[in-house]
Write a structure and sequence with these properties.
The protein is an alpha+beta fold. It has one domain. It is built from 2 helices and 5 strands; from the N terminus they run ββααβββ. Strands 1-2-3-4-5 form a 5-stranded mixed beta sheet. β1 and β2 form a beta hairpin. The termini are far apart.
């Protein structure tokens, strides 16, 4: 799936087996993953297009929270697998045990 903003042509991948699936997101949350989930409006120094990266984060987090899909990605604490939940302040990273 296209996840532009951090780098040109940036993509993430859905990996599925039957009804089970996970999204491997690559640098949607560049830098510290948990901070960008909590603060999707922040712009990362190395984002090629900060505005587009923010739009992508907001769209991605909204989809991940609404669909309750597991996420695996760079820049999250070990094991780097979890879910994104929506709360009154925006979004929150919930690691999988």
């Amino acid at each position: 799936m296209p996840t532009p903003g951090h780098a040109p042509g940036h993509t993430s991948f859905t990996i599925a087996s039957g009804a089970d699936h996970i999204i491997h997101q690559v640098d949607v949350t560049a830098g510290m993953g948990t901070l960008f989930v909590q603060n999707p409006g922040w712009h990362f120094l190395f984002d090629v297009d900060g505005q587009l990266a923010e739009q992508t984060r907001r769209k991605f987090y909204e989809m991940a929270a609404a669909d309750q899909v597991r996420i695996q990605g760079f820049h999250f604490p070990f094991t780097a697998v979890g879910n994104i939940e929506k709360n009154s302040n925006g979004y929150h990273w919930v690691p999988t045990a």
